[in-house]
Amino acid sequence: MDYSTKNIKKFIYSQYFYMGIRQALGVLMPALVLLGLFHHAALGLAATFGAMCVAIVDQPGPFRHRRNEMLGCALLGTLAAAITALASPYPLALWIAVIAQCFGFSLLAVYGRKGGLIGFGCLLLMTLTMHDVLDARAAALHTAAVLVGGLWYTAFSLAVNRLLWYRQAQQAIAVCIFASAEYLEAKARFYDPDVDIEDNYRQLIARQAAVAEQQEAARDVVLRELPRRSDRRRDQYRTMLFNLFIDIVDLHETMVAVHTDYLLLRRMFKDSDLLVFFRDLLHKLSQDTEAVGLAVTQGMPSKSRVTVKAEVRAIEYEIELLKQRGFPEAEPEAYAALISTFRRARNAAYIVDRLRRHTDVAHLDEPGSLQVDASLQRFLSRQDFKLGRLSSNFRWSSPYLRHALRVTLAAAIGMTISSEWLMPHHAIHGYWVVLTILVIMKPGFALSKQRNLQRLAGTLIGCALVLALLFFVHNKFVLLAAMFVAVVMANSLVLLYYVGSSAFNTAFVLLSFHFLAPGSLMVVGERAIDTLVGSAIALACSYVFPYWEYRMLRPLLRRAIEANRHYLMASLGLAGTSVDNVEMHQENVDYRLARKNVHIAFGNFTNSFYRMMLEPKSKQRSPAQLNSLVIQLHDMAAQVGAAAPLIAALPSLPPPMTETVATVDRLLRDANAGKPPQPDEDDQLKQLTRDMDGAVAAAQAGTAPADAERVLVLQQLAYQIKQMAKTALLIRATVPQVH
Fold first, then answer.
1. Each residue of 370-397: pLDDT tens digit?
2. Where in the cell is it found (predicted)?
3. Phi, psi (rounded to 5 degrees) for 54
4. Rounded-to-integer distance, Cα 536 and Cα 521, Å
């Protein structure tokens, strides 16, 4: 399939496009009814704005969470509209009302992403209500229409979600699959000698953070729709979704664990075709995984014809040649790395094949790698909207308080320069200036700066589109159709391409106001000027009360190290359980929970680091050391993931291995505690490494041929533990250098 065609299909069947259509229908329906049947354009537009406010919060997630969030947004948005409408005839009262709401609603960001969306939705309603001066009766009607629009959209979205519950979970899993395919492709590039390893690490880590984020979103959806044995038809789909999710998590974990010393492999096998075979194998697995994701979005069994049998057999043949030449005895460490990499890649191929089979309901009777059990509730996220969380952020050290103050200051400046006191002829429109400021300003400096440029570009493009449309088109039904397309594309692109989303959002709002007051095309140019003014204010205020990203990095680093420690300890608990056993072990659940937490903590740390790198150089702290820690923490998680199935395959670990793992745990604890490195730590690990090698050699010397597999497991585990020890030493040495 042509690459561009495949991307178009991915978008059309994606949750983003589905969400865009659902939101467009829910947002525009009140306007169509009130305008088309009752000829109330102003009330129809107010109801549409109320629905739009709630639609901002309507993101993929658990049904109960979405219901609470949308109802809360509808009520708070109505309150914002009422306050603004009542204050609109009085300039000073409006100024105070807008400033107070900017502070209060911006502070909702303390509740995370959903809290920030609720706050933004309310502020959006506030700014759109500022468009007209309303008397008491008009204010009451406007507020009622906003409430009706918000409640309508909530009911509409929840009804659609109930009817098409399967579609949402299906699309969430497909996004996970696509993210994992991109991660696989980044892994494949490590085996290309022409690719710079450090540059590829940066891409790989960005993909890792994206996978962790998508898995967290899909996990909440899937684990709340587990098989219930009450509806056989629905149970079939629930089982399929559950199996697909567990498969994609296992695939990602397997590929994270395909980690080794890439420089060692490139050096030892530069004259061999092994690197080419590994690269092609992982590239094909990436293609196959992407094909499975596309099949899932279309609700069809995967018919992919990609096969990796040739690469697997070629690698097996090359390994056999190495054995005949005595390579395992001459280079035991390189051989252990090669075998470990091959086994994990081959296991990944098995999982992709299982993933493909699980897209067909005919294979639902196959045993999964995890049973449906009440313990799965431990994996779910919880809503936390306690008032204490809000009050605890009323301190100068809180980044959320500083963000709220910045937004308030910027809005105050925007309202002042566009007021009648300074601009009696309204050359600048306060509502559009404030809207621009609210869209641009985010808690982090880097994101605000990025949004500033994107918003500016998107607004100018949107103004140009509307200018051309209004110049050539005068049929109101065509303009309504254009509004529908604008809403669909604005909501579909908001997470994919913000410039495009901003352009379509601008087009939608301009077309909406055109229905209220058809007239001169000059209004489009005026909005472009308003956007320039708002962007300049937002950029200037971004430097006020800043909370630079480096302040967030140390606690996030501590959590990432601690999560790796728990992951390591959970993997030790797998001894004798067999991770791939379908029987539900408590140790298995603890391990999977620790694995989930380590990926989330790592993603939070790396995202914060990359945001810091977009800030002014004078505000960046220890970039080289932090970049090194990003790689080291990724390596540590990968090494633990590679060691886990080896530990599970053994009834117990030899004492030298247990002691080495305990030393790794101590090194990580000392790094988090800020203890200075001890001069003999390196020597201690070297001695433990020699003891491990001695234990493996003793097992090899006294083992019958039938136990050769156990010896190979010990050799591979010894290699992984050595890698862990080296990485722990690096983390231990690097953390004190971070300022």
1. 455 544 555 556 666 777 778 888 888 8
2. Cell membrane
3. -70, -35
4. 24
CA distance 438 to 529: 16
The percent helix, strand, coil of the chain (3-state, each to 5) is 80, 0, 20
**For position 381, what pLDDT does the model report?**
61
Could you tell me the pLDDT band of residue 582, with boundaries at 50, 70 and 90? Answer: very low
Q: Which of 3-12, 265-274, 290-299 has the lowest mean pLDDT?
A: 3-12
Tokens coding 521: 């095309």
Is 493:461 a contact under the CB 8 Å cutoff? no
Nearest to 195 by CA among 98, 262, 287: 262
Alpha-helix runs per DSSP H in 261-308: 262-268, 274-298
Q: Kindly tell me the burial class for residue 617, based on how many C-beta atoms sit within 10 Å of its own C-beta (0-12, 13-18, 19 or more).
A: exposed
One-letter identity of residue 210:
A
> Does the predicted TM-score (pTM) go above 0.90?
no
In the structure encoding, which two tokens stand for residue 529, read together? 């000027």
Q: Token digits for 160?
A: 């659609």
pLDDT single digits (tens) 669-712: 998 887 777 777 777 888 888 888 888 778 777 655 546 677 77
Report residue 642 as tokens: 């590679």
Give tens-digit pLDDT for 415-430: 888 776 555 555 556 7
CB of 104 within 8 A of CB of 148? Answer: no
Contact 103, 408 (CB under 8 A): yes
Buried b or exposed e, range 361-377, using 16+ CB within 10 angstroms: eeebeeebbbebeebbe
Q: Tell me which residue of 672, 679, 688 sits closest to 725, measured CA to CA.
A: 688
Give helix 399-417 / helix 522-541 axis angle, nearest 10°.
140
Question: What was the pLDDT predicted at 581?
Answer: 44
Closest CA to 486 of 465, 460, 457, 515: 465
Q: Which of these ranges, 103-117, 210-224, 288-302, 666-680, has the smallest mean pLDDT?
A: 210-224
Query: Could you tell me which residues come within 8 angstroms of residue 29 by beta carbon, excluding any fewer than 6 positions away?
Result: 51, 152, 156
User: What is the radius of gyration, based on Cα positions, of the chain?
Assistant: 29
